[in-house]
Amino acid sequence: MSLMMLSAASVQAQQQRNATIPSNSQAKEDFQPNLTNQPGKQYPMVNSEGAVRVQLRAPGATSVQIDLGGRYEMTKDENGVWTGTTRPQDVGFHYYQIIVDGTAMPDPGTVSFFGAGRWGSGIEIPSADMDFWQIKDVPQGSIVEKYYWSKATESMRHCYVYLPNEYDKNPNKKYPVLYLQHGNAENEYGWAVQGHTGQIMDNLIAQKKAVPFIIVMDYGQGQNIHLKGQYAPAEGAATNDAFQVVLMNDIIPMVEKEFRVYTDAAHRAMAGLSMGGGQTSRIALANPTKFAYIGMFSGGSMTPEAVQGAKGLKETAKLVFMSQGSKENRGVVEGAEALNKIGVKAVSYISEGTAHEWHTWRRSLYEFAQLIFK
Amino acid sequence: MSLMMLSAASVQAQQQRNATIPSNSQAKEDFQPNLTNQPGKQYPMVNSEGAVRVQLRAPGATSVQIDLGGRYEMTKDENGVWTGTTRPQDVGFHYYQIIVDGTAMPDPGTVSFFGAGRWGSGIEIPSADMDFWQIKDVPQGSIVEKYYWSKATESMRHCYVYLPNEYDKNPNKKYPVLYLQHGNAENEYGWAVQGHTGQIMDNLIAQKKAVPFIIVMDYGQGQNIHLKGQYAPAEGAATNDAFQVVLMNDIIPMVEKEFRVYTDAAHRAMAGLSMGGGQTSRIALANPTKFAYIGMFSGGSMTPEAVQGAKGLKETAKLVFMSQGSKENRGVVEGAEALNKIGVKAVSYISEGTAHEWHTWRRSLYEFAQLIFK
């Protein structure tokens, strides 16, 4: 295929993405307020088929669309209120926005989430298995915001830390730690907010399906992490290792000082979604004796060759976990089998009916958490 | 004044608020990226006079304005990028938004804050005294998200809890508690995020200007708190006491169970800003033997008559604190003097150069925190 053909195909794809889809007029009329709405807000709504209905008051606008896996037409009533309905969506959480006269804006009806490089709206399509991340009246852990000084960036940074409920009740007990990273154009809030890390862990621990451990969630977007002084990259060097520098030099030492954690590889895990899965594989391969549990959710890869080239990794790694949504094509089953063949314990997981989105990653955490530190 | 005159005045005021102010063409050209911008974003910017410059790419829009204490005109360049500049603003934090063809939206350049009933943009105008809320390399406390079961709403609720740095290091020490509430159309994030509660406290404690104590920040918007069962209000009853019901029956018992705190009135404080100040005065008067320290920041009032009518309050209250911005007219000096005359220790504080906004409240917390639990 010539470059010109590729370019034409790419223009066509862009046009298709921007083409307006008619509002879904066949939707079942059993809409309920979306679960991530702000208190007191009725819209957006979701029906039992997973279709989303959005309303926005914008009397002065000439064109308003829902941008949720395509641009859906909205129509204006006599009061200047625009309404539109999407086709049924996959179960789970989706970022979306509203396009007003060509300008993207969040739907003011929902709580604000950071994804796709912006603070914007999020919709939750209930799934049959959603119980596992619901807030339940079980012993509640906590999500702690922790600021710390970073030598590598010469600035204060912050992270979120999940502490299991029992942490404060056992002042002499030490805990294992999972370092858990977000995806591209997301941030350190993602896992705790749309990921529901706290609820997933509280529920697993209450059911004794997971051992209590600590989870550290930090900001890993390499191009926004500016290394300074002795940590600054050489002129022209790639910056996608900036998070690795901060993790190894600042975050892990801070966590091991500020929290009651074990400091050996057997009690240390790293996982991430999408870009965070790529970081996990790169960091684990570059630090082969540091992480016993390695989780790559819809991102990253670890070939037998890479493992064999990373001295000590095979002996250190107790589990390599690879997952994807069933609507993704990442070959995690074959990837895990290839590692098993060289004697590395590897497990794959496929999230049924989901794509490169948060429900895949919530389920991945739910599965991964049951397998580690045991 | 007749009702009709009032209505005409109100229409005129609304028209003035909606009238477009020309972009500030006299602004000093020393603009720097705003402190609350998302990583990597240059705009919005603030200059040394406190003027704000906003940019938005919106090629399809026919009118774009900055809504920041008035609606400022923005103009479009040949690339469809709109730019506008406001007059100098008061120091401190302001909520604002962009109006695109009449529809309000957040500025995608800033981090997202909840205020004015929406997740939206916030701008920080540096102040000469801003050091007190800056993140510094001092021992860091933490902000903990805590979920709990509420009997009163028959649902899981959550709050944010500030724990001083030393909390985890003193497993046998108990701490006093301040219950600290947000204003109308804000939420439980406000004090920790735009209020910088954690930084204010960490800095005060590091300088030994405040004793270490715990701060609990919950969601108090009465009309969105739905009481159930035995706690449900009688048909037609006002709901502005819903937060009081939750605080006294759920939040305080949860905090006293889950955290290492003293449980007597001498070690319990309540404060709030604006609506939260009103809640503080009502709750303290209705529970006169429960709070030794009472802080009303730009809201609420406590007259000598009210104190004398609340049996036990005079004996319990060690300090009543009333504050306002110098651009507000609340009579806090006279209010405190009136209480002093009946033998209640009361202190007033006026934040110079600020109005009914967050910098007033950050400074109020900074002052109040130095006076309590001593």
Summarize this entry quickly:
Chain A has 374 residues and is of the alpha/beta class. Chain A has helices at residues 3-18, 197-206, 242-258, 275-286, 304-309, 313-316, 332-341, 358-371; strands spanning 20-21, 32-33, 45-46, 52-57, 64-67, 71-73, 75-76, 81-85, 92-100, 103-105, 113-115, 118-125, 142-150, 155-163, 177-181, 214-217, 268-273, 293-297, 319-325, 346-351.
Please render the helix and strand layout as text.
2 copies of one chain form a homodimer.
Chain A: H1 3-18, E1 20-21, E2 32-33, E3 45-46, E4 52-57, E5 64-67, E6 71-73, E7 75-76, E8 81-85, E9 92-100, E10 103-105, E11 113-115, E12 118-125, E13 142-150, E14 155-163, E15 177-181, H2 197-206, E16 214-217, H3 242-258, E17 268-273, H4 275-286, E18 293-297, H5 304-309, H6 313-316, E19 319-325, H7 332-341, E20 346-351, H8 358-371
Parallel strand pairs in A: 1-6, 15-16, 15-17, 17-18, 18-19, 19-20
Antiparallel strand pairs in A: 2-3, 3-4, 4-8, 5-6, 5-9, 7-8, 9-10, 9-12, 11-12, 13-14, 14-16
